[in-house]
């Protein structure tokens, strides 16, 4: 936490309202429009702005986007002013903090000028993507260097299309002023989270070869066949990947009955059972199978063991698509074992003919514990010819163990339905470090960061590397960041594409 956090507000009314939500002495009145700009350059306010360690600008603004209503909060991703553009990198975390307090929040550019923006000028700025306009922010943040944390927050009074200086304006100003005190806790949490940090990158992290292959399959199908391309289940378990493919024309469905007869459908990287293949054949669907080759290996092992009259104990998570697809290969000869308790109680027809297989995305430690119990009960237990936990899962778990030993906090980038990402969180937690799963920077809670100076960062095998970059950019908005990578191995695995999308 910094000892010198200053929040600047244009008018005395705005400063008083903000002061009701912040400690004494934090909020300073700047004046409005050109008067504020002159005070910033020529007065005691200038010295205060230069000496402050953390700067926020907050107050009322005029809405430019029709979606932004009176009383809504705009957190600036950048401030556009007469002298250029200033970015606000920590905006996603601050916006999320306000949302958690029940405020309606928009994240995007704020325009700032020294005069009241009206009429056609407002429409032009709206067309360029600005959410609201004020008269002070640019003059204040242009004096802020990249290393000093800064934020701009505005509560909208007048909305897009409304005529200014009308009787209704008074009511809208009153409504906006009532929101300003509610910004205080979020702004304080943001200030408490500021400071210099070291970021430790776990390597390897992010996409594995199977995920790259699956995403490439959908992209190639869209390029060669055109939209729509239907995909059964999520192609990989990541919200951002799915949304990006949807924007290009992919249509994700839960079951094949949502796919028109004869259409093209891609099976996800997690694999499907023979029953799904059979249903696709009866519907004359054009199928491209994006099952990860390492998952296909486990499918083959199930068939081999059960066809030799073995009972297969499949160590996995109930309901996970990989578990459902794998056990569907030989449903009458496969039993699910989720944990050591299951391992201690599962019953098999012939203890001399028992094998185990493993969901590819599980944690190494959790599997070892289950296998130990099974071996005690079934001394003739047979293992797969090679480790079922995929190389990428193993590598990422070993890498996160390495960074956890040096970190005060670990952030794992990945979606909540990603098994391998959840296992990374658990791996870090077993090392005794607080760890959290985040889809992106907006999922980071500012109170996690208060007082924390070393953060470990990794990403699940289904999470794009760009999301890691966005998280680090957001952390830079809280203060200087030094990045160090901790690599446990290098990955050079490549899986060929299926013939249906292979370029000639």
Automatic annotation (TrEMBL):
Group of enzyme by EC: oxidoreductase
Domain Nucleoside phosphorylase: 30-167
Record's cofactor remark: Binds 1 [4Fe-4S] cluster per subunit.
Oxidoreductase found in the keyword field: yes
A single BP term in Gene Ontology: dimethylallyl diphosphate biosynthetic process
Cofactors demanded by this protein: [4Fe-4S] cluster
Pfam families: LYTB, PNP_UDP_1
Keywords: 4Fe-4S, Iron, Iron-sulfur, Isoprene biosynthesis, Metal-binding, Oxidoreductase
Coiled coil segments of this chain: none
HAMAP family in the cross-refs: IspH
Function: Catalyzes the conversion of 1-hydroxy-2-methyl-2-(E)-butenyl 4-diphosphate (HMBPP) into a mixture of isopentenyl diphosphate (IPP) and dimethylallyl diphosphate (DMAPP). Acts in the terminal step of the DOXP/MEP pathway for isoprenoid precursor biosynthesis.
Protein name: 4-hydroxy-3-methylbut-2-enyl diphosphate reductase
